[in-house]
Amino acid sequence: MHSALEVDTVLLDMDGTLLDLHYDNHFWLEYVPSQYAQKAHISLAQAQHHMSAQYAKVAGSLDWYCYDYWSATLGLDIHQLQYQTKHKIQLRSDTLWFLEYLKRLNKRVIMLTNAHRSGIALKMQQCEITHYFEAIVSSHDYQIAKENRTFWQMAAEQYCIDFKQSLFIDDSEKILQVAQQAGVAYLRGIKTPDSEKPAQEMQYFQSINLFSELLIQK
């Protein structure tokens, strides 16, 4: 194996991998708290503190990623609020180039995301990349987050994915570890999921700034 792209299948996360995570960070850490502060008649700082505590309760579970859960918990229409900030949804700098490259190589390309279907629909509408994927798989389809190995077993079975011949790219080291445990042979992290934040360093996985780095033989 000379390069990470000498595989049959490329599995791609969405937020922070294909899309700039700045939208989600802004939405969940700034915009939603601001809307909650208005509703609850409290300060933004109080709202952010409250929401941080709520986030911590369900981090890594399906509820963390579920718009319906947050709509019920916060008394806000999360589905509607996302449309008010959709102008911030952006692809990472070389995502289109990479998807075109994979298309020319005739690779199987499958998206594996924890995002709620409502969020996926809006982001695909904004970015127009749906046609590059054989399938777009949401953890909500299986009612179990990517942080759980069962998600990987179900995806492999449904889409006949040979993990030994697959590359998976994600901005979460925790999820990469679960993918590794599930048998995915080739794994890469993303150093700069949010274009407006400093790069992250992964402890256990090789990470990249640009997809073109995958072409370098290692």
Q: Low-confidence stretches at least 5 residues in length (pLDDT < 50)?
A: none
Overall form: globular
Measured by DSSP, the beta-strand proportion falls in: 5-15%
Strand order of the largest sheet: 3-2-1-4-5-6
What is the arithmetic mean of pLDDT?
94
Tell me the Rg in angstroms: 18 Å
Tally the helices: what do you get? Answer: 9
> Gap between N and C termini, in Å?
8 Å
Structure summary, number of beta strands: 6
Helix content: 40-55%
Which structural class best describes the helix and strand composition? alpha/beta
Largest sheet: 6 strands, parallel
Order of helices and strands: EHHHHHEHEHHEHEE
What are the salient characteristics of this protein?
six-stranded parallel beta sheet; 218 residues; 9 helices; alpha/beta
